[in-house]
């Protein structure tokens, strides 16, 4: 099904853009916005004049000289003024309790569409720009993605911040204002290449710099002791190095502008920008060395920790933003309430994973040293204010830090950790738990691997509540990584299944589908996701299904254009779009998908005249720069794509695409166009996932294992509307205990053996025949993530999917039912549960 030229990205919007710039369609008119023709003339005129004023007096450009980026900045500044108006209009009363959300990542993406949508100004802005001869889609496309995160952790934090603003939870998010984020991914002959993500090259019009909110963060040095009274000794840290943390605030506007919260990001600066003595003495480089060292903290997200220097920088980052955030919230609390002893009554601090776990000793230090509390009072405040979200069961992802590094970089904190641990272990002795193995298991210090601080244990012990992010994940936390700690405090671990903001991932990302929903079940669906249930009645309505299919076809046409622009590969929008886009990691099993692609390629070549279901496999995601195996998987996917796409025998039946530089804005184009969502991680290893929720909400059918939130998605959409395969978590554990399981699985599956042989033979890398042998050898001899064991069932379910696709009425029925039954996965529901059961915060 085609789209008119007017529906496609304009030629102008594509000019001057790099291959990895996301080209947007002009934004569709959503059903919940007044059409431009009936919008208030004054509102449109006011917006037009506001944009022109920003363009002239802030950007310093005229309409004739302004670039696309200038128009974006002017429009964003005009919208920002209205966000501030909404914030001021909400009043400045001090809430009884405020949430502080500490996260190393906030993957907020582009903010212009969020602001327009949540303020109800999409059509007003479109009309104002149109009167100036500017297309709204072009302006939106000129906004860079904010490079403040990497994957699900950061996107979850962004969803939670938006939901808290939407449902009225007073909150401040704390993170780092990264200059370059992770990296910009490009592909050179299929190999991932990393370059800096220069999203701040022309500034960020959404932020407010707050120089008055600047804090000093220390590193290194020594600790002194002094007697303040008989029997009372105070310790004082004297850092050898200090760095300034300067606040930059980004407003987070909630739905319909009723509430506005703040995302406060810290930029690292040196105490002195230049050593004038050194500079004047001729050492011009050395004179700014301290500045470079300080600013490195907020330079790049997740510096490689493969070296000791990288590990130290990672720890410096984590302590830097945690310390600045705690100093800031304590200052605010004292100004509002007077006494830090009441902090836990008026503040709830959520630690998003172990990155801010250093908050436990840092909050203790601040209460002990700066506010002169006793140890007992400080611990009472700390352990009743902090809460910890665990996001992983993988041992390598549960952070630990060498004691030597901690003692050198944060000597006072290491003293506090030792004392917390000593008191913790003493308690075990008091209740008769003297067993050495038990004490080793619950200790905050791991003595078995060169003495390391267990940050997960530290966060667990210092938190009032610890939560998992899906039902399965929480149960596995209790029975695996925190089994011994859970036995000591069985009420501490609770489950809070993740959610996604429907404003971004439904209203904004898929206005066509949202319009259909509004027309079918009413405007209430915009405020109450439960109203989506009404779509069930339309799942077999011929007229609705036809409009649904047409809407999906238009989104697939748009994605096909983006794929062609970015990769030069032409794909057929009528084919089944089979999508796996997420961070590249072995446990997420992109390799299983690639191997099945090779097996399908072999099957098509063996029977070219069979009626194969046309399929387009779309991959996307970044591999960590030091993750060699993940980067090799990307290369294999690209080499398989080249061979498949160049083979005339499979033309029209199979295409493979790897989309470079996967981002939030690209996800907003891919997800509404996807037919099949690949959620195929090894059961028991994905904590939750949120991509699975976004795809299902937009009507993609899920093929997945019983892992993470897939289990709960299955419960809600119905087992007949999802494709499940493979071992469950218990089966994975049992099979891992079986010797030679990989060898046996390959021997039992001729199809798998043939695919592995083709990859190992150099068929996809003739210039380097042994290129992919490490991947194949690992599967044959170790297969840590059980790809070989699950392969045959994965092949089986994919052929079931082929059959389902060839029944359009049945497919669209399942797709519509997925959308209709996803309301529970709203992050509004998640935030209400956190507020009621963890933070004890009343909604505004």
UniProtKB/TrEMBL annotation:
Matches recorded under InterPro entries: Glycg_phsphrylas (IPR011833), Glyco_trans_35 (IPR000811), Pyridoxal_P_attach_site (IPR035090)
GO CC annotations on file: cytoplasm
Biased composition (Basic and acidic residues): 1-25
Catalytic activity as recorded in UniProt: [(1->4)-alpha-D-glucosyl](n) + phosphate = [(1->4)-alpha-D-glucosyl](n-1) + alpha-D-glucose 1-phosphate
Compartment annotation: Cytoplasm
Keywords per UniProt: Allosteric enzyme, Carbohydrate metabolism, Cytoplasm, Glycosyltransferase, Pyridoxal phosphate, Transferase
UniProt region (Disordered), positions on chain: 1-38
EC numbers: 2.4.1.1
Residues bearing the modification N6-(pyridoxal phosphate)lysine: 694
Any one biological process term the GO annotation gives: glycogen catabolic process
Molecular function terms from GO: glycogen phosphorylase activity; pyridoxal phosphate binding
Keyword rRNA processing: no
Cofactor: pyridoxal 5'-phosphate
Function: Allosteric enzyme that catalyzes the rate-limiting step in glycogen catabolism, the phosphorolytic cleavage of glycogen to produce glucose-1-phosphate, and plays a central role in maintaining cellular and organismal glucose homeostasis.
Protein family: Belongs to the glycogen phosphorylase family.
Protein name as it appears in the record: Alpha-1,4 glucan phosphorylase
Lineage, top ranks: Bacteria, Pseudomonadati, Pseudomonadota, Alphaproteobacteria, Hyphomicrobiales
